[in-house]
Every structure is written in structure tokens, then in C-alpha cells.
């Protein structure tokens, strides 16, 4: 509805966007008044409406006496409410189900009788420009409303608060010149794309009988629709599209949208690999793989990538969003979000059922995670594997979750490829205009079972009885185009024949296909590589910094701008930092971290840290953001440094979604140190799918390196089972094939060096760090200035803080993390001069070679103890046991095996009782040091399994 037709409705001035202000200020999507503006066409005050109708009646030469005006104004008001009813609820009566199995009765409030117009179809009413009408008969108005809102497209948009967004969508759906219209050439192109989609699936079924392909059969309208995304996206400024999707239709998208060569797909179906044999890796099934390519429409080239994904439905979503955000940053596109477009393709049951979908919607408008809108395309099969919609969700549509962020939703009949293509065109235009998410819910069906070996009639016999007799999309659309005179009788068959000839040619060529290169170190990754040295032989790079840079960073980290009023406690923290730089001693964890960040930024790298409360730090240790105590404006010291870019974000309260987002960001940008920090380490449990399927195995499955860093607070300090363990054992269980790095670091300087090492090496591996809690301020966990400069580097093992001659050592206690300081303090208190404490700072890749050299210098060694705070079935014990034995053998101490000292096995990672924790800790330390009050006491007090008493 154009503005020229809205003059009879009182205008409201929209509020401006978000303004600078206090932290409790509402997000901008709450600023709009939900029930205001012309597009809601609420009933006006009778006096107002009477004046409006009087003016219109005079212009049209109609009666203007009081009685006629009162009736006309009442008729007009009721007509407006009829229009509003269709705008709000018309989608409920739309023609969406191709199978006509979903019975959709016309709601009562969409009937003329509800609005008092029964039998009055010839009554002329004034609607002031709505739907292009001034004066219109009720019958014509009603027919037009049914055509617009109850056809093959059902639009849900009246839940959106923003007036301009609603008006925009109304203009596109209601204006006669903006509805579904394509040229004859465009219609033939749509038909050709549908035929390619159908014939490709048919060809695979014929050539690879019984092989799983998770075909698109029944949803082929998606192929021209996705091509529309490329075409109209390119016209709107898009130069890169990043796709994420699960199994169904993936091979079809790879072939017919991503233009992956058919011969390569056929080669993979025959058991071949898409990559050369010498690149290694375990590979993955063909319907998990991704690809990248360039396609050109109307002279505009668009680069596209489909992100590889596991079987975990929707898991790829945050990865796509993070990658898109990184690419936008690389292209300097974070303000307009025009050049890089994320597109997510979902299944209906997964969209409604998987919580990660909502987590991604939750990220969509948050600073630091916004991508300028994502296009969501739901392949609505109306079934999830064997589960019918009534058991798959509690809402009318699978798309209803999107209403939480006020995303518009276009429901569309999959048997109408023009409608589906129109929906994608409108989605591109909306996203480009408003920078927000939009959802296309394509109702279709799954012609075969969940996979091609499945029998769907076991559970849905009536649906599949209808599907077996239901015509294919191309047959329906071809008949329609023949009726319109767009194509002749043999046109569709000719297209099928030509396309099948091409498939046969590529099928023959697939037998001789040999991949000649892998693409994992191209583009932004140029110059990086797979490590050439075996994991046990790699040496550290130079990670120390110059004294001049060290001092300069000290000034940056301690200088308060004149216009900033800081908290008094922060003032004391900064005074302590000044003393560190002045004395060269006492550098704590947070200062070492800031030095690592600042030095990398100064050297031209990006640094991105996100997580729950990461700006301040969960334990008030970081203070990366200084907040003015008067007006809450913020100052980020490290963001003032030149060359690189420092970002720190307090994320939404999500682990799965945010960790996936950061993994995607690191996938796209290896030149940014990308970190995700858990509030407490065990919160990573909520992101276990991302850890298992992407972080630990993405490189070997998909040849996609990644340098993501996970910071997981870990340490037993009596805080109970949920705030003690980051589940170190789970990460160690995932370690193999040089896939990740796992560290449990005890000194600030070593933390500084491992962060810098992550960026300065010529390869990228995910890094998991068990970060401390009490060690953040522990008097012994300090470093000196000289440990950051000169020829210092990351140390995979660290020696005792007390110098003990190697030949005097009879008992060696190996450990990792915080317990080292408990051991050293107790050892020194007891005056044990033949006990040495050695810390394993990097658990994987295990430092077997340097440990063997260290052990070889202890000729009188009698016992080697592994001490840990975690229960025996947790922590590192079962991982390091044989590795330590191998190091002992290599060092000449044949026959020796490490002895365990720690908590007994436990179902819960830690006790919740402070006194019990303290006693357990005392006992395990004593056991490790060989003191008499150790072992038995620890076993007795570790857990009381004989009763329910605390």
C-alpha cells in the first residue's frame, strides 16, 4: 500500500533507533508501538471516520447527509477490520499443502458474516487506498484479500513491531505490480531448474540403486528459488553467500546450485574421494561434504560456499553465521552487511525441535554477532523421519520460533515454483533493506522415505498413498506454462533429454576422475599449512616480545583517560598493574593475557574474545572494558592500539550457539585469535556437539583447519560439582591424529606464550585451555617481566619452583594445573628435600620427548607419582598413565610405572561440601608426597556410598 493512499490515516512518527545511554535501555525492537500505523488499519474513532468518508464521498459525488455518512463510516470501519483480519490471519487459510492433506478451514473472522457483510457483496465501501482501492464493493475487496493472503503464499508479518517493515511487506504483497510476476524467459528458467533437480535425483536412483542420497524429491522448487537468491542477491550488492544445510537435498544443492561438477559427485558415489590421497584425513559421507564455487548471473559474479556439517541437525547454523561475520569483517562490510549473505536451509522437524535454532535467532541482533540478517529456508516435508507434525511440535507451524525475533515468515506451496522463487526474491529485498532475518517455509513432501532404503508407509500410509499418485512439480508447472502459451508440448521433454545426456557424459567421465588438489589453504589461509613435523618433534616459535613494546603496552593498560570516571576498585587494580610494570615482578594472569592480546594486535593480528561476562571476566579479573561510573560510556584500552583489531563481547547466555559461531569465525579468519570463554569450564557440556563434531574432528573429516581457542575455568576449590571441573578427561579422550591441543597452565607468562604461539606458527589447531580460578590471584602464580621478553617461549613442562638437584630426587610428582601449588607448599612445609614437583603444562600433544629428557637427569629416581585433583575416572590419569610409562622407558627407567594419587572414582566430579573437599584435598596432597596421613584417609573420606547422609 503506497504512502499516497494512506493520507486518511493519522501518521505516527517512528522513534529513532537505539540511542547512547544506560545499560538497561531497551533494545531497538521494543521501541516501536505494536498497534499503531496505517498498516494495522484499526477502526478509527467514529467521528474521525465520518470526516474521512465525508471528504471521500464529496469527491466521488456520493450522498453526504448525516444518516448516509454514519452508515458509510460504519461500513468503512468494518471493511478496515476485515482487511486487518486477513493481514493478521489470512495465512491460516492459504493454499499451502501440495497434498491437500492438511485441512485448513476458513477461520470465522475471515468470513464476511463475522464482519456484518453477509449477503452484501455489492455494497460499496471506502477503504482509502488499501489494496489499491478507494471505493470498492465488499465482494471485490473480499476476492482480492483471498487472492493476496490465501493463495499459494501465506505471509505472517503482523507480529513485527516496526511500522516501516510491515509497510514494506504490505507493499510487496498487496500492490498489483509487486505480486508474483515473471517474464516468459524467467518462467522457462524456473522450469529448467526444477527439471534439473528432478532428473538429477532420478539419475542417482537409477545408477546407484539402494544408496542413501537423502534426495530432494518433492521439494525441487527449492532449486530455482536458491538460484533467485544468487541472482537477486547479486543485484543487491551480495558478493558472497555462505550456505548451511543438513542432508535432505544437499547433493542436489551441491550439483545444481553450487555447480559442483557432476562427475565429482558420481566419483564420490563410486567410493572415491574428492581430495587427493596424499592430504590424509578420514573423510566423511558425501551428503555431509561442502564445497565452494563462483556463479554468475546477469554479469555479476557471486562466490558461494556450503559449509560441511555432521549428522547433528542444525549444528552447522552458528558456524555459518560466525563464518559470515568473519567474512563481513574481512570485506569491511560490518556496517552495511551488503556483501556477505548467510543462508540456512532447514528441515521442518529440526527447525521446530532443535534449540540451536533459537540460539542462532538470539544472536541475530546482538552486537558482535549480527550478520545483517540471515535467510532461513525450511524444506517442510510435513514429517520428521517417521514423526508426524502433531508429535514433532506444539505450534501450528515449524517456523513459529522465528516470531521471537519478529522475523517475517513466508509460507509457500512447494508445488508452485514461481511462488517459492518470488518468496526468495522478496526475502532478499527485505534482508537488504532492513538487515534482519526472514523465514521461507516451503510446504512440500518427501516422495520417498527418510532415506532411499526406508519404507515410509509403515507409519504414514495415507500420506504416501497420496504421494504415489501425486504429479511431480515439473509436470504440474509444465502444464501450467503450456496453458499460458509460454512453452509448447515437447519443451519439457526436450529439457529432460538434454540434461540426461549431460549426466551420462559426466557419469562416464567420473571413472577417470582424479582430484588434483585440496582447497583448504587457499584465500585467507594462503601461507598456512598442515604441520610438516610430527607432533612429538615440533619446536616452539619465538613468542617473546621486545622490551619497548612491553613497556608501551604497560602504559596502555594503566592509563585512564581524563573523561573516564572508573570504579574505585578498578583504580586499585590499575595501581597494582603500575607496580608490576615498575618493579618487573608480580605479573598476574589477567595482565599476562592483556599483554598477549595487545602484542598480537600491535603486530597486525585480530583478537576476538567472546563468552558470558568476558568483558569484565567471571572472576572480576580481566577488566578489558572500563565503564564510566557516571554515564556508563565504555573505554577499551586494547582497542586503542594500532595495526590490528581487538574485540571483546559479552555473549548471550548460550554455549552451543556461541561456541559454534566462534568456530565459524575462526574457520574464515586464521589471522584473528578467536577465543570462546565459558563462565565455568563445565558449561562447555552444553556445547558438546560442537566440540565432538567440529572442533575435534573437523580437520580430519572435512580438511578444514581451525585455530579456535577455548578458555575453560577449571580447578577444585570447594565450589561443588558444577563449578570445579571443565571435564578435562572428555577433551583428552578426543585427542588423536594431532587434532587439537589441550593445556592446563600454571603460570601467567606461559599463558602469554601459548596465546602468542597460537598465531605465530604456520598452522592452526584448536586450543583448549583449562584456565584457573584461584590462581588468578594466587601469590605463587606470578611471573616476572623477564619471562615475557628475551628468548623466552612456551614451556610444555615446567620444573619445580624450588631448586632441587636432580641427583637428590627420589620421588617425582607429576601433575597439571592448580594442584601443583598445593603440592609445593606442603612439600616445603614438610621439608622434603628429595621430592620434586614437575608440571605438565601441555597434555596433548603430550610432551613425551622433553619429559623423557627431564626424567633421564634423575639417576636416583625411585617413584613417579601422578597427582590430580579430579576423581580417578576423571582428569588426565587414564590418558597420561602409559604416556608417562613410555617416557620412563625412553629415559632409562625401565620397569617403572607411575602411581596414582588423587580422589577415588566418583559419579559426580566433586563434592559440594566444603569440609569434605578440604579433607580430600589434604589427603591427596599427602598421598602424592608420601606422607603417612594420605591414602587410607583419602579413600575413607572421598565418598560416603553407604548412606544418603551428607
Automatic annotation (TrEMBL):
Keyword Nucleus among record annotations: no
Complex and partners: Homodimer. Part of the 2-oxoglutarate dehydrogenase (OGDH) complex composed of E1 (2-oxoglutarate dehydrogenase), E2 (dihydrolipoamide succinyltransferase) and E3 (dihydrolipoamide dehydrogenase); the complex contains multiple copies of the three enzymatic components (E1, E2 and E3).
Function per UniProt: E1 component of the 2-oxoglutarate dehydrogenase (OGDH) complex which catalyzes the decarboxylation of 2-oxoglutarate, the first step in the conversion of 2-oxoglutarate to succinyl-CoA and CO(2).
GO biological process: glycolytic process; tricarboxylic acid cycle
Keywords: Glycolysis, Oxidoreductase, Thiamine pyrophosphate
GO cellular component terms, semicolon-separated: cytosol; oxoglutarate dehydrogenase complex
InterPro entries linked to this entry: 2oxoglutarate_DH_E1, DH_E1, KGD_C_sf, ODO-1/KGD_C, THDP-binding, Transketolase-like_Pyr-bd
GO molecular function, one term: thiamine pyrophosphate binding
Annotated region (Disordered), positions in chain: 1-28
Entry protein name: 2-oxoglutarate dehydrogenase E1 component
Record-annotated Transketolase-like pyrimidine-binding domain positions: 587-778
Listed cofactors: thiamine diphosphate
NCBIfam families named among the record's database cross-references: 2oxo_dh_E1, PRK09404.1, PRK12270.1
Amino acid at each position: 500500500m503506497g504512502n499516497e493512499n494512506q493520507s486518511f490515516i493519522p501518521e505516527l512518527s517512528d522513534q529513532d533507533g537505539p540511542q547512547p545511554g544506560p545499560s538497561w535501555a531497551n533494545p531497538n525492537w521494543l521501541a516501536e508501538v505494536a498497534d499503531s500505523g496505517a498498516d494495522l488499519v484499526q477502526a478509527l474513532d467514529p467521528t474521525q471516520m465520518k470526516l474521512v468518508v465525508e471528504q471521500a464521498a464529496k469527491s466521488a459525488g456520493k450522498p453526504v447527509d448525516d444518516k448516509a455518512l454514519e452508515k458509510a463510516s460504519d461500513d468503512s470501519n468494518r471493511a478496515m477490520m476485515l482487511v486487518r483480519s486477513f493481514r493478521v490471519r489470512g495465512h491460516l487459510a492459504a493454499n499451502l499443502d501440495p497434498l491437500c492433506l492438511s485441512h485448513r478451514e476458513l477461520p470465522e473472522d475471515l468470513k464476511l458474516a463475522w464482519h456484518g457483510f453477509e449477503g452484501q457483496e455489492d455494497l460499496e465501501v471506502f477503504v482509502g487506498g488499501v489494496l489499491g482501492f478507494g471505493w470498492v464493493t465488499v465482494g471485490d475487496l473480499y476476492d482480492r484479500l483471498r487472492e493476496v493472503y490465501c493463495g499459494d503464499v501465506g505471509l505472517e508479518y503482523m507480529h513485527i513491531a516496526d511500522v516501516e517493515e510491515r509497510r514494506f511487506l504490505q507493499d510487496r504483497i498487496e500492490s498489483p505490480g509487486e505480486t508474483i510476476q515473471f517474464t516468459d524467459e524467467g518462467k522457462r528458467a524456473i522450469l529448467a531448474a526444477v527439471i534439473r533437480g528432478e532428473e538429477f535425483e532420478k539419475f542417482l536412483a537409477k545408477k546407484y540403486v539402494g544408496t542413501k542420497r537423502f534426495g530432494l524429491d518433492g521439494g525441487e522448487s527449492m532449486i530455482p528459488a536458491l538460484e533467485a537468491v544468487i541472482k537477486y542477491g547479486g543485484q543487491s550488492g551480495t558478493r558472497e553467500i555462505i550456505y548451511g544445510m543438513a542432508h535432505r537435498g544437499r547433493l542436489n544443492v551441491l550439483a545444481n546450485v553450487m555447480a559442483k561438477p557432476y562427475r565429482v559427485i558420481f566419483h564420490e558415489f563410486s567410493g572415491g574421494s574428492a581430495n587427493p590421497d596424499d592430504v590424509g584425513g578420514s573423510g566423511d559421507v558425501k551428503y555431509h561434504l561442502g564445497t565452494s564455487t563462483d556463479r554468475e548471473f546477469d554479469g555479476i559474479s557471486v562466490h558461494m560456499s556450503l559449509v560441511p556439517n555432521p549428522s547433528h541437525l542444525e549444528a552447522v547454523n552458528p558456524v555459518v553465521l560466525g563464518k559470515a561475520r568473519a567474512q563481513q569483517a574481512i570485506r569491511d562490510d560490518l556496517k552495511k552487511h551488503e556483501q556477505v549473505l548467510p543462508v540456512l536451509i532447514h528441515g521442518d522437524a529440526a527447525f521446530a525441535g532443535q534449540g540451536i535454532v533459537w540460539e542462532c535467532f538470539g544472536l541475530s541482533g546482538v552486537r558482535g554477532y549480527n550478520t545483517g540478517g540471515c535467510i532461513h529456508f525450511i524444506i517442510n516435508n510435513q514429517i520428521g523421519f517417521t514423526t508426524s507434525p502433531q508429535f514433532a511440535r506444539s505450534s501450528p507451524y515449524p517456523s513459529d520460533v522465528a516470531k521471537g525475533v519478529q522475523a517475517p515468515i513466508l509460507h509457500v506451496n512447494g508445488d508452485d515454483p514461481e511462488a517459492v522463487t518470488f518468496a526468495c526474491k522478496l526475502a532478499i529485498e527485505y534482508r537488504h533493506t532492513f538487515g534482519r532475518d526472514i523465514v521461507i517455509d516451503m510446504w512440500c513432501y518427501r516422495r520417498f522415505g527418510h532415506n532411499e532404503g526406508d519404507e515410509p508407509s509403515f507409519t504414514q500410509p495415507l500420506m504416501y498413498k497420496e504421494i504415489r499418485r501425486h504429479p511431480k512439480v515439473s509436470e504440474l508447472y509444465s502444464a501450467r506454462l503450456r496453458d499460458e502459451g509460454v512453452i509448447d508440448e515437447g519443451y519439457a521433454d526436450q529439457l529432460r533429454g538434454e540434461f540426461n545426456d549431460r549426466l551420462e557424459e559426466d557419469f562416464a567421465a567420473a571413472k577417470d576422475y582424479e582430484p588434483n588438489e585440496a582447497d583448504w589453504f587457499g584465500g585467507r589461509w594462503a601461507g598456512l599449512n598442515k604441520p610438516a613435523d610430527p607432533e612429538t618433534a615440533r619446536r616452539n616459535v619465538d613468542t617473546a616480545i621486545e622490551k619497548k613494546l612491553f613497556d608501551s603496552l604497560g602504559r596502555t593498560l594503566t592509563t585512564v583517560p581524563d573523561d573516564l570516571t572508573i570504579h574505585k576498585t578498578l583504580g586499585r587494580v590499575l595501581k597494582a598493574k603500575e607496580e608490576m610494570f615498575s618493579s618487573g615482578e608480580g605479573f598476574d594472569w589477567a595482565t599476562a593475557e592483556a599483554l598477549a592480546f595487545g602484542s598480537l594486535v600491535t603486530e597486525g593480528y585480530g583478537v576476538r574474545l567472546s563468552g558470558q561476562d568476558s568483558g569484565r571476566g567471571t572472576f572480576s579479573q580481566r577488566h578489558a572494558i572500563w565503564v564510566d561510573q557516571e554515564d556508563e560510556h565504555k573505554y577499551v584500552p586494547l582497542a586503542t592500539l594500532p595495526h590490528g583489531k581487538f574485540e571483546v563481547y559479552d555473549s548471550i547466555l548460550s554455549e552451543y550457539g556461541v561456541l559454534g559461531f566462534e568456530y565459524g569465525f575462526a574457520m574464515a579468519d586464521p589471522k584473528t585469535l578467536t577465543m570462546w570463554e565459558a563462565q565455568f569450564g563445565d558449561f562447555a557440556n552444553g556445547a558438546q556437539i560442537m566440540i565432538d563434531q567440529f572442533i575435534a574432528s573437523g580437520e580430519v573429516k572435512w580438511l578444514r583447519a581451525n585455530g579456535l581457542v577455548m578458555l575453560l575455568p577449571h580447578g577444585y576449590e570447594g565450589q561443588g560439582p558444577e563449578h570445579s571441573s571443565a571435564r578435562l578427561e572428555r577433551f583428552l579422550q578426543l585427542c588423536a591424529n594431532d587434532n587439537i591441543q589441550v593445556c592446563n597452565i600454571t603460570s601467567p607468562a606461559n599463558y602469554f606464550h601459548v596465546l602468542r604461539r597460537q598465531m605465530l606458527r604456520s598452522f592452526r589447531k584448536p586450543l583448549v585451555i583449562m584456565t584457573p580460578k584461584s590462581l588468578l590471584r594466587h601469590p605463587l602464580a606470578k611471573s616476572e617481566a623477564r619471562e615475557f621478553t628475551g628468548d623466552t617461549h612456551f614451556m610444555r613442562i615446567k620444573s619445580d619452583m624450588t631448586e632441587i638437584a636432580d641427583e637428590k630426587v627420589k620421588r617425582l610428582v607429576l601433575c597439571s594445573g592448580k594442584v601443583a601449588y598445593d603440592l609445593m607448599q606442603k612439600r616445603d612445609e614438610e621439608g622434603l628435600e628429595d621430592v620434586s614437583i614437575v608440571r605438565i603444562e601441555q597434555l596433548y600433544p603430550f610432551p613425551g620427548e622433553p619429559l623423557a629428557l627431564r626424567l633421564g637427569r634423575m639417576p636416583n629416581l625411585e617413584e613417579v607419582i601422578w597427582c590430580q585433583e579430579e576423581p580417578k575416572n576423571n582428569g588426565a590419569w587414564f590418558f597420561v598413565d602409559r604416556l608417562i610409562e613410555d617416557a620412563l622407558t625412553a629415559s632409562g627407567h625401565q620397569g617403572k610405572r607411575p602411581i596414582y594419587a588423587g580422589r577415588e572414582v566418583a559419579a559426580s566430579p566433586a563434592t559440594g561440601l566444603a569440609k569434605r573437599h578440604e579433607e580430600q584435598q589434604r589427603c591427596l596432597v599427602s598421598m602424592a608426597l608420601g606422607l603417612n596421613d594420605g591414602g587410607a584417609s583419602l579413600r575413607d573420606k572421598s565418598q560416603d556410598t553407604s548412606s544418603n547422609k551428607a
